[in-house]
Amino acid sequence: MIFKTLISGVLREAIAKKIFLGFFIISTLILLGFLVFLNTESVTGVAAMAGNDINEFVIGSETFILSVSYLLLITFCLIGVSSIIPSMLEKGNIDLLLSKPVSRSTIILGKFTGGLILIFGSLVYLLGGVWLMVSLKFGYWNASFLSSIFMLTFSFAVIYSLVIFIGIISQSSILSILINIFLIFLICPFLASRETFLFQFVTNNVGQFIINFFYYILPKPGDLQVITANIIKKEKIESWQPVVTSALFLITFLSASIYLFKKKDY
């Protein structure tokens, strides 16, 4: 019961701060823009040329859409929830929360779950809308595309665990956003290119070990994007290692957040 109250509290906060409204307006604008794009003569002409290969055309289009929007969607979701923990820790809010008969670990897990439900619902609206438009337009229903909703939610959950951790330490939503954007768009892609780029310049074993170490312990949004694309294209997944190591990152930082929240004196 208390856990449900915490989750509904996150959703009520999202409504009060217009986060829900922001997601809805931006997602609707994207969907309307995509609807216009689908009905342009060039797209209709290319689809007609595809003929019997329309299934491959649809899968290729869906994969392309997700490839160009994957990291942006995670960042968009990240900005939407970054204020949840700092807001909770504000004087007055935290006093009221801790006066209730609820454990601190339940509070963090409730905030975490509430954020995931908020983002999952937003992604269902946006990506479900894209899937519905493409399927109705071309008559091919590629259900695999819907798996991207779950993979994006998982990718967000990994980053959100770090947002909660930074929020508890710093009580700053801006710092959480900056660190995560730095991680998503710079550090993680740089480490992911280690075998094709970095190791051409770092040839000694110690240097390569250090680079590999940071690659494996940090989140891998780019690799998760590749796995999602392979699922949409119904291709074989070469390795689930990015999912496993990202899940370990999530568990580690969520556990550390709970530990710190229990130790802090508010």
Task: Write structural notes for this entry.
This protein has about 270 residues and is an all-alpha fold. It has helices at about 1-15, 20-40, 40-50, 55-80, 85-90, 95-100, 105-140, 145-170, 175-190, 195-200, 205-215, 220-230, 240-265. Helix 7 runs antiparallel to helix 8 (about 145-170) and helix 8 packs across helix 9 (about 175-190). The longest helix is centred in the middle third of the chain and has 35 residues, at about 105-140. The two termini are about 25 Å apart.
- Fraction of residues in helices? over 70%
Shape: globular
Mean pLDDT: 88
Distance between the terminal alpha carbons, to the nearest Å? Answer: 25 Å
**Uncertain stretches:** none
Instruction: Determine Rg (CA atoms, Å).
Output: 21 Å
Query: What is the strand tally?
Result: 0
What is the number of helices? 13
Largest sheet: none
Q: What string gives the helices and strands in order?
A: HHHHHHHHHHHHH
Specify the structural class: mainly alpha
| Strand-residue proportion | under 5%
